[in-house]
Amino acid sequence: MSENIFSTFQTVVHLNEDCRSTHVFIVMGASGDLAKKKIYPTLWWLYRDNLVPDSTHFLGYARSSIEIKQFLNEKCRQYMKIKPDEEQKFQKFVEKNHYLVGSYDKSENFAQLDAKIVEIARKGKCENIEDANRIFYLALPPSVYTSVTKLLSDNCKARK
To answer: What is the pTM of this model?
Structure first.
């Protein structure tokens, strides 16, 4: 019964996908332990099981300078439970990941974040870059929530 529901959900996700839109999932605090041990593994499992649209890209944002592909392959991999026959799909997932270094309290860094989202949208299926759907996950300490949410609102909202 549950396998049938799962299969139906996968079909619905892809049938109802707006093919003109790109989806950008932004992980704020992407270099931290929560992202490494929980968020990126969960995103991988959703991608692996075809539970996110094909036009979804992932963008990490944090204060630490990291190389995202190396981070996923070396730091996160142990938490992702990748089977040998999933290696090719995992590498496709890794290719859909991007990263940007920035502070949590400077408007100019959030303007750069917005520009990066637009750059990713241009690579995707967007006919109009303003159509890109943006999902923000805050894997951050509560002490920065106020500044981050204000700066996201001021600089990074979709225009449409």
So the answer is: 0.88
Q: Average model confidence (pLDDT) for the chain?
A: 88
In one letter, which amino acid is 152? L
Angle between helices 145-155 and 107-123 (to 10 degrees): 50
Asked whether 138 and 148 are in contact (CB, 8 A), the reply is: yes
Q: CA-to-CA distance for 146 and 151, rounded, in angstroms? A: 9
H-state helical runs in the chain? 2-15, 33-34, 40-48, 68-70, 77-80, 87-95, 107-123, 145-155
Q: Over the stretch 12-51, which tens digit does the pLDDT of each residue have? A: 655 555 555 789 999 999 999 999 999 999 999 999 999 9
